[in-house]
Amino acid sequence: MFTNNRSNPGYPIYPKIIQHRMSRIFKIAKLNLNLTPHSLRHTHTSLLSEAGVSIERIMERLGHSNDEITKQIYLHITDAVRKRDSEMFGNLMKNVLKIDK
User: Fold this and answer.
1) Does one domain contain both 45 and 23?
2) Which of 37, 45, 70, 87 is the most exposed place for a label (fewest CB within 10 A)?
3) What CA–CA distance (Å, rounded) separates 46 from 44?
């Protein structure tokens, strides 16, 4: 997610450096200091799900070979996804009940 552009271009930055920088920025912005770089991964995954990205694409982005890992750990169903799913089912049922007369 974060790569080094100076001393070792293309190599990852040490996670502690990212966490330290995030903590400083969050403190200045008066945001939740308990958030970590890994929190961004969870948020990114939830947003992908809300956007309707397929589980296969999400797995690919996260580097998972098994969809169970992705589903159990990262795909917490959000209110927006619940609402969208409910609306999709409602629309399906409306179309089923439309009978040609």
Assistant:
1) no
2) 87
3) 6
Residues in the chain: 101
- pTM of the predicted model as reported, rounded to 2 decimal places: 0.60
Cβ–Cβ < 8 Å for 57, 48:
yes
Same-domain status, 9 and 44: no
Contact 37, 22 (CB under 8 A): yes
**23-37, 64-78, 80-94, range with greatest mean pLDDT:** 23-37
What are the pLDDT digits (tens) for 8-19? 777 778 888 888
Q: For residues 31 and 21, is the Cβ–Cβ distance under 8 A?
A: no
Domain interval for residue 46:
38-97
